[in-house]
Amino acid sequence: MNPNTSINAARKQGVSRVMSKPALVLAIAGVSALGLVGCSSSEEDSGTIKVAVVGDMTGSGAAVAGPLDAGFRTYIRSVNDSGGVNGTTIELPSTFDTQSDATTARSQYERALADSPIALANLALTSQIQAGIPVLTTADTPVLSAGPESTLLGPPPVPWFFSITAGVQTQAELQVAKAQQLLGGSLTGKKIAIVYVETPGGEAWMKSARTQIEAAGATVINPVPAPLQLTSFPQAAPLAAAAPDLVMTFFFGNDNVPGFQALQDAGYSGPIVANVSVTASILERAKNPNIYAMSYNPMVPPAAVSKAISDAGYGNFANDPWAEVGYGQAAVLVEALETCGEDCDTASLMSSLQDVRDFNTPEGVFDGVLGFSADDHTAVNAVSFYTWSSAGVTPSGDLVTRKSVG
Asked: Which of 131, 249, 254, 404 could be cross-linked to 102 through a Cys-Cys bond (beta carbons 3.0 to 4.6 Å apart)?
């Protein structure tokens, strides 16, 4: 539909209308194992709300986009199976696959927007979002993204881009705050080593982390880049020889474990503060109690959510924390659609997203409340850090709350 056409007006043409959130979104008994949220012909006749989904379903980003897609579709499916929002279903076509490639990404964003969805759910990596910015800017359709893109988040943020997760500057801020906790409350006089993935996002994180660490009074040992497909880490020996008080990492390869093991083998036994690339399974395989991994959600997903994801046909992602992120992403979208009302259009949906405040996600799939404002389009406000011990993977200390915008 035309971006300026309201949902109510579009419904009169048999297109769409906004629905109310079900009382119990996890009641999805009898759901088939199909990967799409489909509509029967009768549902199409009564109208649907069209939401496009774009993600790295193949390529290097698939390990994240796959579970994100599963969680997002599971929540939307549960909404539809509970009667939809005001009796109307949300229609999700097949996910438009960027193939983890910037050139492909631009064309896929164009395809996704061709049918005039009221919103676009983004599951693609930062580099793919960057490639799509010209297309997305022209469309002026609200994008609710599972991944951040710092140039869009500002401050000030562009009006159409909203991120469920934190941008690289905010991730660095939260990691620095955790480092201060671990080193007695201050970084003054400390030596910090940082390792980052060789991507635009990794380089942006490195610059921000370095600035924030130095502002806190510490010295940064020469930053060490690492490839995304990391299988060995020969830089571990000179890094350990520099005797850092703490190591901070940002996507230490797709797996992280070879890098962590290399540092341990090189003789480094101090704390490692990792970003959200480290999952519970990685901590369990690394078996290093000195790794503190940032997470937006419980590293062991709530049982009800795991069951819902499995029952929806995504059993291989049932315990993946990125599926929780996708689940929460969909819940925020439904909350905004509800608030937007039956006369909702793309402009008013942007306003409704900005009005999502202090939102508790279903089943607590995020550790803290989510929310936006006109000046802040990053939803996550607090994170946990998890560590491994022989008793399992558990949170380390209290939630760490962000102070910055973006």
From this structure: 131
* Residues in Cβ contact with 138 at an 8 Å cutoff, skipping those fewer than 6 apart: none
Full-model pTM: 0.81
User: For residue range 51-81, what is the model confidence (pLDDT) as tens digits?
Assistant: 999 999 998 889 899 999 999 999 999 999 9
Task: Say which CATH superfamily domain 7-166+299-375 falls into.
Answer: Response regulator (3.40.50.2300)
Which residue in 327, 393, 406 sits closest to 162, CA to CA? 406
Q: How far is CA 360 from the centre of its chain?
A: 16
* Interatomic CA distance for residues 144 and 312, integer angstroms: 22
Tokens of 362: 């279903």
Distance CA(322)–CA(70), nearest Å, equals 9
Any idea what DSSP says for residue 35?
Answer: S
Residues 6+ apart with CB under 8 A from 155: 375, 376, 405, 406
Is the peptide bond preceding residue 155 cis, with omega within 30 degrees of 0? yes
Contact indicator for 278, 256 with CB cutoff of 8 Å: yes
Q: Who contacts 211 (Cβ-Cβ below 8 Å, separation ≥6)? A: none
> Could you give the CA distance from residue 212 to residue 335 in angstroms, rounded to a whole number?
35
CB 123 within 8 A of CB 65: yes
Fold of 169-295+384-401: Rossmann fold (3.40.50)
